[in-house]
Amino acid sequence: MAKERVDVLAYKQGLFDTREQAKRGVMAGLVVAVINGERFDKPGEKIDEATELKLKGEKLKYVSRGGLKLEKALNQFGLSVEGKIAIDIGASTGGFTDVMLQNGASQVFSVDVGTNQLAWKLRNDPRVVSMEQFNFRYAEPDDFEATPSFASIDVSFISLDLILPALHRILAGNGQVVALVKPQFEAGREQIGKNGIIKDPKIHFAVLEKVAAFAGTHGFAVMGVDYSPIQGGHGNIEFLMYLEKKKRKQSQLQSSWRLLWSWHTRNLNMKSKNIRLEKIRRFIRDHEVGTQEEIVEHLKEEGISATQATVSRDIKELGIVKRPLKDMTYVYELPRKHHQGIGMIESNILSHRRMGEYVNFTMVPGTAPLVKRRLREIYKEHIFSIVADDDTILLIAYSAPEAENILKSIFGW
Question: What pLDDT does 339 receive?
């Protein structure tokens, strides 16, 4: 099994916003293993790249952080597993299985070619049928005591081409599937870059087209596509694909292609937006800019067309604030650290006070709304309520210990 530095792995798994933050976090003893709580304090230590990490004191929703992938798919595609019999193909520690159970699945077949990986609490759950050392590509209906109507697929080192035909034999009519599409295991060898990384969006789209076409000729309709919220090994972008089992016609195959193209076009537009945001950020960082008109003109010089209304929305999204000058005029200014996570939160806090589950933050003027959004994103499982004005935030946690843990996470205590 390949190994990776602890700080690099912590960064790739989204625990920190930068490699430098990850290095400091590891040295501070903030990073532990999900399975056994082992603490890592040497950034350069190399560990199994399959090791799931978390921040010390962090409460994970599921037995594996990978469960967040299926959670997003259920929410994004409007799917329900309530009362359904389901199958988790490539279960590993059981993150997807846990999501299904927490969302009301009546039974889950947890299938994996490995052994002794499924989390102990899932092994002992009467709703779970653990099927270890089971190669699903050879699966038959008789292997299962009941017919699943929902399936998830998260497999590595094998193409979905080898999984979908077997799944079609087993899944109930009109059954639903959430498949994780991993370009590094679907693309041709000549398309895969150094260390197995694929960065080219054209290859990503070609892979999605390939999987959709194969699924269509094997009795599945593509109903939706989105990004996985967690990157794969070595930082590869992966995708969530929602399929339904049904008889296909050529017109339906064309519909699947149109769905993919529409999704791809939207994301190209998002890429253009990200370029525009970065141009604005750098312009404000390097110049004294006092009006939106100046930004619009600068973008025009850079070959980017944008209205003042668009720039106004971009300024809000970037968390840009107005700083007063001695002559009573104002210039735009970026938050003190333009990081999008814990580092950004900490850098904009001037002071704080805690009383039980209540925490009051005094912020750099103008940054409170942006920091409020980041706090809610990162600590949503621990926050009962949060309100903000221009320079203060009132956070109410579900309990006093959770409020304290939030502060420990922010300040690295």
Answer: 43
